[in-house]
Amino acid sequence: MQLTGKQKRYLRSQANKMTPVFSIGKAGLSEDWLLEVEKALAKRELMKVNLQQGAEVSAKELAAFIEDNSSITVAQVIGKTVLLYQEAKEAKYMKYSLEVSKLA
């Protein structure tokens, strides 16, 4: 999903006080890790992922891996933090997607 500037600004404002849910360390990236992220996003829609100091990948490499191997949208990469967004499929978990769709 391609986000507009307004949609990205909205998501960044909502994530401003969030803490990262997942971290990437020396173990690096894997398909299993990505599946866990997708499960978490199915219930959250928006979350941060943090790179630990010993991580062997950069935040931009992480963002590229996620976008290439899933339907998750990277809303922002800043420092060692990546903001991820994926629209929820179940109505009870739709917290941000309703507003994002209005901003299109």
Automatic annotation (TrEMBL):
Signal peptide: none
Occurrences of domain CRM (ranges): 1-97
Molecular function terms, GO-annotated: RNA binding
Cross-referenced InterPro entries: RNA-binding_CRM, RNA-binding_domain, RNA-binding_YhbY, YhbY-like_sf
UniProt keyword list: RNA-binding
Top-level lineage group: Bacteria
SUPFAM superfamilies the UniProt entry points to: YhbY-like
Matches recorded under PANTHER family: RNA-BINDING PROTEIN YHBY
Descriptive protein name: RNA-binding protein
